[in-house]
Here is the input.
Amino acid sequence: MDLRHPFERASRWFGVAQPKSAKTNVNILHQEELIAQKKREIEARLEQQARQNYLSIQQLPLFGEYV
Here is the structure.
């Protein structure tokens, strides 16, 4: 006789996820915030690089121009 909680058996049979603890949920939210922060940092760095590239291209002499 299986004395485990019925939800555990249902999850095994039907692939239902077991409820997560509050600590796990907080950890997931923290990880998502860290990922979002890293994404913002990367986007800012790419934007800065694009600005620098744009300015450096504008300073190059055109084809046939003498410096």
